[in-house]
Amino acid sequence: MRVPIEKERLSAAGVILFDQSKGEAASLNQHFKELQRRLKTSWKILVNTDEITISRIEAAKVFIIAGPTEKFSVNEFEAINTYLNKGGSVLVVLGENGESKYPTNINYLLEQYGILINNDAVVRTSYYKYFHPKEALIPNGILNRCLMYIYI
């Protein structure tokens, strides 16, 4: 369901904006039903299907990019950077194998903030309580070395 983004509607409640403009592998209504159901009680959930601009995303508390399969333009990266510099929050979700499986350039944005989506996956090689080998518990799992030095 596509909901038009209107300024007066955005100011009434906290908004979580899902991006669906880059052929996302995960759509809000198909892959995030449970999350949407839980968030709807406190948040207004909207979907962006148009080009990403600062005017479209600035009123959102959280901007979610889930599994983009198309490349972002320079203007879209500038809009997201402006949004982040103004205090906005972005959640980027990508599947295993990163950009090699999803033909996007999202790492260009993430690298500016010291984040990188790797082209690999964590696989458990011995039996444990989880059913699937890719359901792996990583205790004390801070993978970004910079974060380890800051918070330890």
In CATH's first tier, which class applies? Alpha Beta
CATH architecture level-2 label:
3-Layer(aba) Sandwich
Spans of at least 5 consecutive residues with low confidence: 6-12
Q: What is the β-strand count? A: 4
Features:
single chain, 152 residues, alpha/beta, Rossmann fold, 4-stranded parallel β-sheet, globular, IFT52, IFT52_GIFT, ABC_transp_aux domain-containing protein
Please describe the topology of this protein.
Blueprint: H1 7-12, E1 15-19, H2 28-31, H3 33-39, E2 44-48, H4 54-57, E3 62-66, H5 74-85, E4 89-93, H6 98-101, H7 106-111, H8 145-151
Parallel strand pairs: 1-2, 1-3, 3-4
Can you walk through the features of this model?
With 152 residues, the protein is an alpha/beta fold. 33% of the residues lie in helices and 13% in strands. The chain has a single domain (7-120), classed as Rossmann fold, CATH 3.40.50. It has eight helices and four strands; from the N terminus they run H-E-H-H-E-H-E-H-E-H-H-H. Mean pLDDT is 79; it is low at 6-12.
